[in-house]
Amino acid sequence: MPVSLHSHSGQYCKHAKGTLREVVERAVQLGFTAYGLSEHMPRSRPQDLYPEEVELNMTPSDTTNQYLAFLNEARSLQLEFKDRINLLVGMETEWIHGSTLTESNALTATHKLDYLVGSVHHVHEIPIDFDVPMYERAEQRAFEIAGSPATISPTECLFRDYYDAQYDLLVGLKPAVVGHFDLISMYRPGHPLSEVCWEKVKRNVAVIAEYGGIVEVNSRAWKKGLVDAYPQRAIVEYMKAQGVKFCLSDDSHGPNDVGMHYSRLLKYLGEVGITEVYYPAPPSQSGSNSLICIENVTSLPFWKQFASQ
Questions:
Q1: CA angle 293, 230, 161 (to 5 degrees)
Q2: pLDDT tens digits, residue range 22-66?
Q3: Is pLDDT of 286 > 60?
Q4: What is the rounded average pLDDT for all residues in the chain?
Q5: What SS3 state is found at 40?
Q6: CA–CA dist 44, 100 (Å, integer)
Q7: Measured in whole angstroms, how far is the alpha carbon of residue 238 from the centre of its chain?
Q8: Are 171 and 206 in contact, with CB atoms under 8 Å apart?
Q9: Structural domain boundaries in the chain
């Protein structure tokens, strides 16, 4: 009966695969109790489109229309499958430029979204999860903004600025789910968290704990070749000590990714000592921001189907 609160489909995300219905049907087949549909929020500026969107000659208005079409189908599927799975309809946020948080809040209010996945994918308006060349551009930009210091590396500058951007997002949006907390390590998995970065991590965790956000344990990190899920275990252990709640996410980019690496996720949960996970109560069960807790999560029969992964 576990959950995933972070997903995409090729129908509404150009770097994913399959249809939204196929993603939902796969989640039902695997026995998920709740599944979050969280396509990316639309972008308002041409320079913020991803390369695959540029190749398709998309415009910012196309991303708006795409997201609205997603909402329409997601709500329809939510109703159609209500007796088989709790579908939550939301949005994965961006934090790119000065108006992005305002745009996120407006979309949430206008469309009465069930929840937000609060994620940072850009630093200094440059994507940090698309490919290595873009990541390196972001590093160099962070280094230049810091004054090209002789005592710290471009990577360190980028890590610091990433956690500062995340802080702004957490304070400005208070997302129900915090997406891939340490995504910045994707292309620099060996970079240790400096004392300065750790202080920023602790500051961000304090914000999450204060407003009651849920941090996703995201299994997609293993598809990227990382040793741990997001967040890495040292951060998870600190979060646990601060009373932070956790949820599960496969961050699927198509039906074949639903439940991706959940066998490793089960092992990881045991290693870091997470025994209960949470998810926002579906609209039919709550008129507020209440959470549903799944206790003894690692002992559920659900996990047996992933033994061969």
A1: 120
A2: 999 999 999 999 999 999 999 999 999 988 999 999 999 999 999
A3: no
A4: 95
A5: strand
A6: 8
A7: 19
A8: no
A9: 3-306
What tens digit of pLDDT does each residue of 57-116 get? 999 999 999 999 999 999 999 999 999 999 999 999 999 999 999 999 999 999 999 999
Task: Quote the CA–CA distance of 41 and 26 in Å, as a whole number.
Answer: 23
Q: What is the DSSP string of 91-153?
A: EE----STTHHHHHHHHHHHHT-SEEEE---EETTEESSS-HHHHHHHHHHHHHHTT--SSS-
Predicted confidence (pLDDT) per residue in 141-160, tens digit = 999 999 999 999 999 999 99
Architecture of the CATH domain 3-306: Alpha-Beta Barrel (3.20)
What is the biggest distance separating any 2 CA atoms in the chain, rounded to whole angstroms?
60
Q: What is the mean pLDDT of residues 290-307?
A: 92
DSSP 244-309: -EEEEE--EESGGGTTTTHHHHHHHHHHHT---EEEEPPGGG-SSS-EEEE-SGGGSGGGGGGTT-
Which candidate, 48, 41, 55, 44, places its Cα nearest to that of 13? 41
Q: What is the identity of the amino acid at 244?
A: V
The dihedral through the CA atoms of 119, 256, 228, 132 has a sign that is negative
Using DSSP, state whether 71 is helix, strand or coil: helix
User: For position 284, what pLDDT does the model report?
Assistant: 65
